[in-house]
Design brief:
This protein has helices spanning 25-41, 62-72, 90-103, 120-123, 131-147, and strands at residues 6-9, 46-49, 77-80, 83-84, 108-113, 151-153, 161-164, 177-179. The chain is α/β, with parallel strands linked by helices.
Length: 202
């Protein structure tokens, strides 16, 4: 059995324990790229950037931070940790990570999750009552996008796709997609509609 060892960050804006100072968002972004660079230099396997949509984080757009890391590294794999798929458009997720894959010569991965923090759902106009169903449908679409192009697809939460040309394709025409699982199967205050348990790579 083999194991991968990596590091991930949410890009949190927290006080320096030694000085008590708070870094600026600009400095925190630069520090994130430096973390990826050092992780690559010491031989770690994977570097991840998580997604948060609040003022105390700079990680609202992980693919952009990972693109910066791609240019500063040579071999380390680059992943979201996680992409909050229920509040994202899977077409856009694929386009961004396929572009990252081209920039990094095939090092992009996606860790898709439902989101234990739910600030992105009202921000992008989604109802938390649909939390589990959004994830299931959008994961299905993301996997279908990865599987082939052009694509015809329909669902409840976005406009249908008819022979849609979704580009670019990844460097090796595919991207590893992992499904994250942690915490409670539903966020607080959301009625139970299903017991989703996702544990394996897709």
């Amino acid at each position: 059995m083999t194991f991968d060892i990596g590091i991930m960050t949410f890009g949190e804006l927290s006080e320096d324990l030694a000085t008590g100072t708070l870094p600026s968002p600009r400095q925190r972004v630069r520090d994130t790229i430096e973390q990826a660079t050092v992780a690559d230099q010491v031989g770690l396997d994977v570097f991840g950037v998580g997604e948060h949509h609040r003022g105390d984080f700079v990680g609202s757009a992980p693919p952009i931070l990972l693109a910066g890391a791609a240019q500063a590294t040579d071999r380390i794999r680059l992943t979201s940790s996680v992409t909050v798929l229920g509040s994202e458009d899977p077409v856009r997720v694929w386009e961004q990570f396929a572009t990252l894959d081209l920039l990094s010569s095939g090092r992009a991965e996606i860790i898709a999750g439902r989101g234990s923090y739910t600030e992105s759902f009202p921000l992008f106009g989604y109802d938390l009552q649909d939390y589990a169903d959004l994830f299931r449908e959008k994961l299905d679409l993301l996997l279908r996008i990865r599987a082939g192009n052009p694509l015809t697809w329909s669902g409840r939460f976005r406009a249908p796709l008819v022979e849609a040309d979704i580009a670019p394709r990844a460097d090796g025409d595919t991207i590893p997609i992992w499904v994250a699982s942690a915490g409670h199967p539903r966020p607080r205050s959301v009625p139970a509609r299903s017991d989703c348990r996702w544990h394996s790579p897709c």
